[in-house]
Structure formats: structure tokens, C-alpha cells
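Below is a complete specimen:
___
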Amino acid sequence: MSATPTFTTTHRVQFSETDMAGIVHFSQFYRYMEEAEHEYFRSLNLSIMQKQGDGSIIGWPRVRASCSFEAPAFFEDEIEIRLFVVRKGVKSLSFEFEFFRDDTRLAKGKLKTACCHFQPDEPMKSIPTPAEYDEKIHEVTTNQGNSDE
């Protein structure tokens, strides 16, 4: 990806995240994407689960997630996770992620979320992104965009 990341964080691989071969299990990368997303929202003084005064919640459930793997990660590796906001829709956000160990790209991931209102005893309903989120979250410009590679 040729753009500057929207947000960057690191994660030290724990032993419990590895498989019998000592390699990070593929499912962990989905967890790492979610952790980076949560940290990004917190860096903006936002949350992916925001309680409202009436007891309802505004949240961001996943609509789509994918990850492609390029190199293994191992116990004790420090992984740099780069988050890119590649599309800010009226009711959704699309993120792309890159995972690096030093100069080696380990994986690329994508995550699409929808802004939803959760009212007790009612089905969730997608809603336009609230102003407090809309004014703080910005797209990056990339050559890749939101492609399905």
C-alpha cells in the first residue's frame, strides 16, 4: 500500500496464539485487526460500542472480513499493524490492514463494518454514521483502494 497509515500499533505474539508448528494461527490475524480497530477508535476518544442516554448502543458489527497471508509470524515476534481507512460510507467503514515484522510483510487484511443502533428487545438497525464519528474519521488515498485482491 502506498499511503501513510491512518493508525499504527504493535502486538507482541503470545505463546497461546501459536499452533503446534510454533506459527501464529491464522485466526489470530482477525483478532489483531479487531484490536487495532479498537485502539484506533480509542485514539479518537471514540468506541466501537457507545452507550446512549436511553440505554441503547451505537456499534459497528462486521459485514465482511478477509486476510491473506505472506509469511509466518512466531512466538515473541513484535508485529506492527498498520490500519488504513480506505472508505467512509454513509453507514459503513472499510479498513485495510498490513502486518509487518521489521521489513517483512506478513499479511494483508480487510474489514468492513456497518454503523448500527441497538435498542433493547429490538433488531439492530443500520444508521448513518453519527457526527462525532464522521468528523474524526478520515479516508486515506491509496493506489490500491478497496480492491478485492
About this structure: The domain at 7-134 is CATH 3.10.129.10 (Thiol Ester Dehydrase; Chain A). The beta strands are 7-12, 49-51, 57-59, 62-69, 78-88, 92-101, 104-114, 116-118, 125-126.
